[in-house]
Fold Class I SAM-dependent methyltransferase.
Amino acid sequence: MFWEKKLENWVTNFKKESSMPLRVEMWNGNTYDFCDGTPAVTIRVPALESLHYLIKPSLDNLGTAYVEGKLHIEGKLTDMIDIANRMASGFHDTVSDSAAKFRRFFGGFHSRKVDRESIGYHYDVSNEFYQQWLDSRMVYSCAYFENGDEDLATAQVSKLDHILTKIRVQPGNRLLDIGCGWGGLVMRAAEKFGAKCVGITLSENQYNLARERVKEAGLEKQVEIRMQDYRDVKERFDRVTSVGMFEHVGLRYLESYFKIMHDLLEDDGIAMNHGITSCDPDSNETPFGGGEFIEKYVFPNGELPHISMVLKTMQEAGLESHDIENLRHHYARTCGIWAENFENNTEAIKKIVDDKRYRIWRVYLAGCSYAFSADRIALYQILCTRSGKMNPILPWSRRYMYEN
């Protein structure tokens, strides 16, 4: 039969490539081992119609098959992610690559309605869902590990303080946080630094819980949470932060996004953009189909620029970059801890979401940790001001960022 010949060729080719601790079990009882020892991962192909996911093992195909139950995959999560990446790296799907390049070249459409729906899909799963694997402040962005051995809660507070120290928040400063999540940064800015803050989000769940938390903390006079698109903010601020938000903006809209950030700043204001970037110099999708999977199941309409594109569009928008810090290793660790928390709270999470959503997030969190570790994606903090000025607010030395 045709499929038997195709499978035989696939098995032969993969065995030639390298040994991996993998066993594949077919619906007809045939078994294929790709190592001499005990396999760490077993893939069960339950029916003939599932076979094409296996013999075209892009990360998109393997992830889709796992999420949709087309392939049954058993093993430790980190081993599953490693094997999937090793399989995908040996396979090149030119059709998938072409589709991804087409989408990246022409860019997605980012109207207010489309962005609101995309944000709602990702963030409005339920607050209880995120509480199972985030820290107590529910900070859903890269943590900052000063020594590398801190727990997640400590590292997230360090991240908030690191950002607020970099932008030199002073008592009474007006601070805007674009994409404020559940309010962690604006609350910290008010409590520790004495700022007057506005946090904006497009997620209804985040909006409601952030407002509750502000009220419980007695910060209503200092912190305002709004359900608002960044394109509709009209005031000017002393400080502007955007943490884990510009991934939703779209490549075609980066310059206009940074122009809005520029216009929101006072003449002597300081801004911080903290966001995920592609490690591909041409800002292409992450390799081996990982980007397609995330677009389909996790972050609809999300696009990652290379750091060079970020700096270029910032300059074109009238923002000067003063300090650029790569926190890729920090995000690999952050996602690794999130994935561990997710695994440890499996029973509770399965009571909150269905099996499909559980599988999506399980493979997504662990896959992100792998992607950051493998230098496929990165995380940059960029400190900036309006260009063309000698800004007296920023000291000559970067020492102030670490003194306290």
User: Anything to note?
Assistant: The chain has a mean pLDDT of 92.
